[in-house]
Records
---
Amino acid sequence: MSAKRSAKGRWIEDWDAEDEQRWERGGKRIARRNLFLSVASEHIGFSVWSMWSVLVLFMTPEIGLGFAPDEKFLLVVTPTLVGALLRPPYSWAVTRFGGRNWTVFASAILLAPTLATVYFIQQPGTPLWVFLLISAVGGVGGGNFASSMTNITSFFPRRHQGWALGLNAGGGNLGVAAVQLLGLLVISTVGDTHPAYVAAVYLPLIVGISLLCALKMDNIAAVKAEPGSQRQAFAHRDTWGISLLYVGTFGSFIGYGFAFGLVLQTQFGSTPLEAASYTFLGPLLGSFARPLGGWFADKIGGARVTLATFGGMGAGTVVLLVASSQNSLPLFIAGFTALFVLSGIGNGSTYKLIPTAFARDAEARIVAGGDATEAFATARRLSGAAVGIAGAVGALGGVAINLAFRGAYSGGEANGTPAFLSFLGYYAVCAAVTWVVYVRRERAGAAAARAAAARNTAAADSRRTESVHA
């Protein structure tokens, strides 16, 4: 398993993660190196994508940028929407240009919105449309998730994909907490009139990560998609079932992450320092919880973990409703923190359902007489395409959450109860789908596996008995 260099970049032509001997001889080292750099690139992408959730806290009349709450929510919604829409083409780009090549481009392009932010955020009286345009360009950071996940899916064997995808996504998700922690650091040290410092920190980081990815990452030929892979994934029912669940998990994580600070300012009158002091904790814990969700899914099944997650998120939303009715800030923060952790766990467990669903289809084709190598190669390609689709649809859930908050807090209202009730209803739908479609299927698969094992044991006992009598 060797990396072949060519004029088109660094390529590995003979990658096979499922070959255990080759995996232990060097494949594991290559996969982990690419995973580490993928996490770094995705982390910076998430930070740039979610930067406006921090910058809006600085936008006050004192610095000549006094926008209304609904205008600030619009600044938060815009990059969320752009990032969601870019995820399918970003996922496809990996299969067209190679994981290394696209990661370098996707990292370097983040310089454009970051430089523009540093300049215009320091210009008092800049109109809203300019910031909307810059925040839209910053949405490119949200596409990094899909390309990164598509790439890493092909580097790891099925038995490690839950852990690897959870670590990859969790490290990226930490970008939300990191930029919010940076915002807190800026406000607490130099005050709330220097938002440009937040963006400026990322300029050298973007350059450094882009160079490291160019020097150390690999493209693998196995990830190249045959024509029609995304179309096939679009037509697969599990792509849309899992996407619906991912709206509930990742949509909640990114939507709450972008909106939490504004919600605290609008509903509880928090100052920029107070809001920034609370906003980073939930995304931080949720990001660390994502690999844990993938690990649990590897051990006990993605469907069962996802079902438990939605039950917990429903309970957490009830806590928010109670906190809103009692105007209790501590209870409100506790409820939101629980939702971040649970959504992080659910992100990891839901994504585990993707390779599992397509591998199950491959096994069915093999039982029907199909070629095993071709069946599993197809499953990998479709899994990569489904990752991009589910990631895009899930991010649109973040758009819906921010629009729900914008509607709830518009017109001078200071209570998010209508938004929380809508979230509670959606979590109930997700729990029902998880139970009906995935938990029952997982149980049926486990029962079939036990029956097959019992048949094999009985056959082996029979052969031993016949040998003794002979």
---
Amino acid sequence: MPKRIRAGTLTVLAVTGLTLGAVLAAPANAATKAPGFLSAGDLPPHPTSAWTAGSVTEGVPQEVEQDRCLGMALGGGQDSWYRDFRTDLDTSARQVTVVLPDIRSAQGRFSRLNQDIQSCPAWIEQADPDIEATLKDYGKLPVEEGAHLYGLHTETSWGATDIRLLSVGRDGRTVTVVDWGQLGDFDDAPVRAFKKTTTQAVNNLH
């Protein structure tokens, strides 16, 4: 049973002869390669419209930098990429991935993103008293170094409702966020399919 959280009740070392394991950080002068991204077919199926995927683009879009759930942890970072997805109707999605300098930094970023998403309903309601925000914690997924899935529902005082599914995953020093959204409420969220999407997103980071 998912845990409901209501606002107000509440982140080359390779030397011949040495066998020390994997590289923890790339040389400072080496260009970081973009990790693998989701394709349109990896998104939760839409009942009436096919998904279209944009190109993988370096950086973080302005919408993410201004987002109350994700902006503080993802905004302005180097070695970041994103990919937008859309349907012909009101459903859209985005994946943002960042490669950190080392494992410890990636662990910290993963933790910070989870904390920010959990705090997001309170920030939304503080910024706009006409919006009520509710978060559901759908739990962890057993993929690579871990992933966590959330649902965020917002409703305005005049009745407009939106539902988002957000997930954070990590593989080594790479952290990825998948953000799906449309008009509706929790009953409209394809949670089971989004778990598969998140698992694929993290597996693609290799």
---
Amino acid sequence: MRKASGKVRITGQLIDAVTGTHIWADRFERDLTDVFALQDEVTAAVVSAIQPKMLQAEIAMAARRRPENLTANEFYLRAMQQSYLTTHEGVAETLRLAHRALELDPHFGLVAALAGFCHMRNVTLGYADNPQIERNEEIRLLRFAWSVDDGDPDTLVWASAISAWMVGDCESEIEMADRAVALNPNSSLAWGCRGWIYKIAGLPEEAVRSFERGVRMSPVDPLLHRAFVGMGTAFIELRRFTRPS
């Protein structure tokens, strides 16, 4: 931290204590009169950098455990790992693991929402043998997840995405996405999902702002391509084809 001429500058680095790997670095500068806003900005940046690394570490630990000893949450973590894939096999394995988690914990709203998202993927990616059955199941899981846990930001993320692609109630979906970022303003996943919700609702300007915020929060996220695709299509809708000078 340095102070000079009425300003304060903070340079932060985040290092993995076990491996010594450099995870994140940034520099922040504000007037001394705005020091609390600076503190909030630094906190948000650090939390946003740590959260994806924690999830990856938890997934790695769950992957090492024997299947017969897995808890519902560990099945969910394995399902999350598979959900990064967009192949037919990856979606099917995500569903299998999610349903195992639900067998162990029938009130696990977050994993129900993830399973519903997979049924949506089967439809949108052309994997479904019977699209109508997939739609019915994703709506059932959406309503179930919403009924058991409507206050979890990640559940709201998956639920709003399912609804946006399959229901089309823009007002409700925007409300869910806004609640998700209000509950966890440091979640790059929530901001990325909010970007898609606003883009689908025909509000590309707000979509771009959400995508950009999500990318700033987690610039090395394994799902970063989703934000770039959404941002690109939003810029096309805005007819912005050149980079600002």
